[in-house]
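Repro:
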Amino acid sequence: MSGRYEQIHIGRRWALVAAGVALLCGLPVVASALPVSVPRLTASQLRARILASADEPYAGYAESNATFGLPPVAGLTGLTSLLNGATKMRVWQAAPDWWRVDVLSDAGERDTYQLGGSRSYIWDSGDQLLTEVRGPQTYRLPRPADLVPPALALRLLSEAGRQASYRVIAPVRVAGLSAAGLQVTPTDPASTIGRVDVWADPASGLPLQVEIFGRGPGRPALKSQFFQVSTWHPDQRTLTPVRAAGTGFTITRPGNLAGALSNLGLVALPAGLGGRIRQPVQPGFEEIGVYGGGLSTFVVLGVRGADGRNLIPDAISAGGTPLSVASGPGVVIGAPLVNAIIFRPAGFFVTFLMAGTVSIDLLEQAATDLAELVTLS
């Protein structure tokens, strides 16, 4: 009898454990099914609250899922994996220039600490290495911190400007919070971005979820959302990297482009290409041209020597489509949000790269304009 009682007791205990696990697993589903109630806000009011949330301190866990469709490019595996896959992040932010973002993976984690505008640290658990990065970054490649919902939403809304179209969309529940929705639609038909949907806490304006869609129907090319988020009282211990005993340490300079620029083609880029005006030039970066603006921007640079000559065959091997520009070789790379053209005018010593959130037609026109200018000079 006592043995049967013990079996019943054990069975009940495991039933309670199973029920507890089921409850925990079902919490996200239950939370998403709860009623959503947000105050009535106009699109301009919600946009203003989101832009005003830049100084809001917060902490949470977020994931981004990107399907840009970019082909693998030698030397840019970090960028292509960031824009072609899932990124899991823990984040703590005290201020726009004072934060920490940990990227989690099966191989470990890579933590980035931003301590003001000119100093940051990177901790790589796999290499057991802490790297101090000294100096401001004028130009850099996208990094995981750019995909955290607040950073992504603020950048998109700032670049879209008032010339974009805004409207309120249905609220949703994100990370257990009722979030008000704002849809941004570029008015420039050349933009590859069809629309941007942002959901934010209506009280603080903190963005909780962002979805970026290309032209036409389909799923978002990029989705970033919090699964857990709360207001946070900044703690310097969390935002200060600690070098443990037995770990490595090194110091580097951010985006030391001096060496990279030495390999760029010294070509005077024009004030306009493809009907788009060149943005003001940053001192020391005259070889890089940024054209257009907002959500319709493309970058132009020239690369000389073997590195430049290898760009076209490498891009074709990665899935690009051959293209002829000014009787010279070229290749076009098309993706849902980013398009690129690489070309070298016949008889010219520089290979040009154009890429941005604009249509291939616009890039082809810009390439033709530039090819005509350099062959006449």
